[in-house]
Amino acid sequence: MNIEALRNYCLSKKGTSEGFPFDDKTLVFKVMEKLFCLTSITNEFCSANLKCDPDYAIQLREEYGDLIMPGFHMNKKHWNTVLLEELDDAFAKKLIDHSYECVIKGLPKKLREKL
Question: Which of 7, 88, 109, 113 has a CA positioned 20 to 30 A from the CA of residue 34?
Answer without folding.
Answer: 88
